[in-house]
UniProtKB/TrEMBL annotation:
Region (Disordered): 1-25
UniProt superkingdom: Eukaryota
Species whose genome carries this gene: Chrysotila carterae (Marine alga)
Similarity field: Belongs to the fluoride channel Fluc/FEX (TC 1.A.43) family.
Full protein name: Fluoride ion transporter CrcB
Length: 422
């Protein structure tokens, strides 16, 4: 930072840039003085004043603040992810005997999870639906769109995403909605249509992919429009607005108490799940769910980290979400191949394979985030300083590429187990 040199004649004032001192040391220019580590370093010489803030101490790359933020995010993703797995398993079991080819059992959970993702959208997504049906001569619609765009979650207007609130939003969107929906189970159903002899054909798989994609896209769009409607309605004093704000405000006043309470709840939940699973019969499907809840958070966290590391590498094609979905499809294909082995496996091998497929792989892959990214790329956005709109072709390339890759790796990871015994 440049500082102004003080001289007797203001007209002759000059600007100089002193060399920044090392962290934890006093900035000495001319005179020396004592300095205690951890406090701002301040040096005063004739004509020059310098003040340097000491860098916070780091442990394994984390500062105290960043470590607490990271643990909050892990906790929110894990707890919300487990809730999403429970909802998905319930709806999938209820739909298994109702939805027949070309439909699939994960269709209901994918649609509801995508709708929830739309309802919980941020202001940027909702602002795209502020229509310009007539000339905006006074700039009112543009101002309204900018107002919506600044919201953290239009469903709750003026929500402050400070403290742990940002972690809660991350947990609800990436954790709950991401684990509520699954691309791997959907893809596996389409692969089995082709692989298993005497069953549905390739045409049924194509229709199943088409229905699943369009239904999920429609669901997320309806959710985003619903969130915008609630924001525009903006009923002052409504219970659905007052109570959440009051709750989040109370949590913000006691962050340590809230953090410890949720960690205690999460660890207690894991203990209860393990104890409950031990009391169930081996043939009980709830036992698969209990073990899946132990594997589920790992899938959610891996998908989150892949998104953070890779999605920004090439914005038109989110590589992180793509990698998570492809890996999830491979994992489900392998677990299904082991479970369908006619030679049979031990009970514990079958149990763990089912739990990994339902929990880890089901949470690693996602439809809600996937279709939200598709919708975002289908909407043309004006490029600053140019007359043309941004290219929307990636809104077609991305979903087609993801589904095609999932089908190919699904055939490779599962098909051999069927063809080997034909």
């Amino acid at each position: 930072m440049c500082v102004k040199q003080k001289v007797s004649k203001p007209a002759e004032a000059k600007t100089s840039c002193p060399v920044e001192p090392m962290s934890g040391q006093r900035a000495e220019i001319g005179n020396s003085a004592s300095y205690s580590a951890g406090e701002p370093a301040k040096s005063s010489t004739k004509g020059i004043d310098v003040e340097v803030e000491a860098e916070p101490r780091k442990l394994c790359g984390f500062t105290r603040k960043s470590f607490l933020k990271f643990t909050d995010e892990v906790l929110a993703l894990s707890m919300c992810g487990q809730l999403g797995i429970v909802c998905r398993d319930f709806l999938t079991a209820a739909s298994k005997d109702v939805l027949v080819a070309p439909l699939f059992s994960a269709l209901a959970s994918n649609m509801l999870g995508s709708f929830a993702m739309g309802v919980l959208c941020d202001g940027k997504a909702a602002s795209a639906y502020v229509r310009r049906a007539e000339p905006d001569s006074e700039g009112l619609l543009t101002a309204e769109a900018n107002k919506v765009k600044g919201e953290k979650m239009p469903l709750l207007a003026n929500l402050k995403a400070s403290g742990g609130m940002a972690s809660v939003l991350l947990g609800m969107r990436t954790g709950y909605c991401g684990a509520f929906t699954t691309l791997s189970s959907w893809n596996q159903s389409m692969v089995e249509h082709v692989v298993k002899a005497g069953g549905p054909t390739f045409a049924d798989s194509f229709v199943g992919y088409l229905i699943g994609l369009l239904a999920s896209v429609m669901s997320v769009v309806l959710g985003q429009m619903f969130a915008l409607y609630i924001f525009e309605l903006n009923i002052q004093g409504a219970w659905y607005s007052v109570w959440p704000h009051a709750f989040f405000a109370a949590c913000g006043r006691r962050p340590w108490l809230v953090r410890l309470s949720f960690w205690a709840l999460f660890l207690t939940g894991l203990a209860l799940i393990s104890a409950y699973a031990a009391t169930l019969e081996e043939s009980d499907d709830d036992r698969d769910l209990c073990f899946a809840l132990l594997f589920g958070p790992l899938g959610v966290l891996l998908r989150w980290k892949l998104g953070k590391l890779l999605n920004a590498k090439f914005a038109p094609f989110p590589l992180g979400t793509f990698a998570a979905n492809v890996l999830g499809c491979i994992g489900v294909g392998i677990t299904k191949a082991v479970l369908d082995d006619p030679n049979g496996d031990s009970y514990w091998v079958s149990l763990q394979m089912a739990a990994i497929g339902l929990g880890f792989c089901g949470s690693l892959s996602t439809v809600s985030t996937f279709v939200t990214e598709v919708v975002d790329r289908l909407q043309p956005i004006a490029i600053k300083g140019a007359k043309a709109k941004s290219c929307t072709l990636w809104g077609v390339i991305y979903p087609v590429g993801t589904l095609a890759a999932g089908f190919v790796v699904g055939l490779a990871s599962y098909g051999w187990s069927v063809w080997a015994y034909d």
